Amino acid sequence: MSTSKPDPEKYAAPSSMLLDEETLKRSEDDARRLSRSWADSFLGHKKHHTKRWKILTVLVALSGLLVFPVLGVWFKYGFKLAYNGDYSAANSTVTGQVLGGSFSQSEAKAVDIAFSALVAPMMMAGLNYVWFTSARVSVVNELDSGRRGVPLASLVGASISSGGSYDPWLIWTLLQGRTWRLLMFGTLVLFSAIAKSAWTNVIAYAAVPVILTKENAVSLRLLSDEHLNEVSYAPGSNAINLDSFSMKKQSDLASQITGLFTGLNFLAASTTLPAQLWHDGPYDEMGYSRPNATRSSMSLADPSINHLIGVPAIFITVQCLTTQPNMITVSQMGTETTVISAFYEDAEFQAYYPGGIGEIQTSMNDVYQYAGFNLNNTEVFLGYLTSFNLSGGSIPTPYGIIEPQAQNMTPSGFSGTKEVMSYWGIRCSLFRRESVLNLTLYDSLWQVDSSGWNFTEQKQIPSLLSQWQTNLNYRAPGSTLPGIGPALARTAGVTNCSVSETELVTCDNGTDFVQLANNFLYASGEVERIVHEVTLSGEKSIDFPYDHYTLIPMRTYYDPADSPESMPSKWYNSSALVNTDVYKITYVPAVLFIGLSACLIAALLTTSMALYTARTWSAKTFRQMDPLRLVVDCGEGLQEDIRAMGVLQSLPNASLSKWAAARMKPEARNPDSDTPEARGTIGPSRRDAD
């Protein structure tokens, strides 16, 4: 760059061609006069330029000082948990922290793009303007009588730098100047680039799971309605006589109900029933609970839903008495069915099993289990029958004391050790309560919440077990007697009674009668559920409008003749808690810290350069090292070599580089003069650079 005060004589434009002496003299006078007016105007605004330089320096300093309050607020609130010993908060400096908001993915992406492509670049554009406008004034100085210049390539790199860059060649070129200010300028270029990268990446977005309440989220089909409750078929029939049942449905019913009975042979119902819901009486009453909705309709609830609100549900309990029948009889009906009848004064209970009476008459002395139902199936007698007279014994149970009864069985065709047989059991009834409850999904099964029950008044209900006593020809594995009785009693254990020589009868407590009652309760509830589920199976599906939160179509089952529109009483809508993802704006504290630190370092570098050159001619006249200034100063510095330019431009690049490097060497200067014209160098000397 030029190293002296502007001299009006120097700004006279040289003549590009030889004219006559008068014309040439007139042209030179005009050029000198024009140059003097430019120089006078420039020097007249020196005070204005000095004020501009001071304002710019203050802005540079403020750009660094503003980092400190931001850091203070961030450390106070962003690391508060970490200071209190929550080390997981320290990990959030890398993983990110949530700023807030609830956006869709496209909205969150728009916020991210807006900050990365608009806000952060505009902020960095403002900072770069302040930093580099000041730094290009401070990077080199004029009016210095030192002995060393600055490479032209370094000056070109400084003049074109108006923002940060990771370009290693640019930074290396700046450092070739080997002055402190060019070193600081190159560092400024690097940290400005780091700051821009950090600010454009500090804001991001993340999917955050939330739970939203969605009204009428799921359409459910009632599991039990008036039509299904009225369906019945004869308990002694070997056919399943439900209306319009196909062979496929009959097969489904047979396999599921057979599996239910067989499963109870190995696993007691108490392991399947819900936990004890409340204490009622002298023992903990357990209940069979289920939503009044088909599993098929519930299975099509959106996967994001794991909690349903306001679903009708039922709760069934069993209550038992220990009063014993007055009499029992065993008789065969035809060739395929035998009935065991237990007579009370107010009711008759009949237990059917598939097989002949000889199953009992000719078998070894054993304890035979059976389940007899009254006429309308609202009560059951869970009974035991065995040989010998055990009428003097007693069996304690949670329901009371059971006193076995004995009677002569010869009228029923028994003989030998079975002429006198004893019987005992419990007489039980099912009671149903209804409520509107919440359901929660556990292990892919919807279960009634154990809290919030608000029951209607209980009512006695029939059991559908009576309809499955014979029509499957079921025999429990390892049982002497066919039918469903052994399946219900197997996991409850067996009571053994003995008669001493003094005819004293003693009975142990081998039977868990509560378990027996719960097996009956569970089997009754499951049989009803299975029958209704199969009855409503095979229906077609339709798509409902997309859910507002999850964008997944909600579906339900319907029968063309039994759609929600045509029979709304069989359908209802349930609200739900929907698990969905909302997108929240986040930031990465580590990246924010890098951005703030880079801004602080850039501001300190620029401020240091400004303070160092505050009294120089470049600062007072606000002379920036920009491309135009570089061209003008190069022309002024090389004016003695103008005639050689025609030759130099034809040299190869290597030779041209050697020539440019030689302009910095002392031997290339005029020893008789230390003026800028004699030095022929471009840029400041070592003393000024240092």
From TrEMBL:
Keyword list (alphabetical) reads: Membrane, Transmembrane, Transmembrane helix
Disordered: annotated segments:
662-690
- Membrane-traversing stretches: 55-75, 113-132, 182-208, 587-614
Protein's UniProt name:
Uncharacterized protein
- Organism for this UniProt entry: Phyllosticta capitalensis
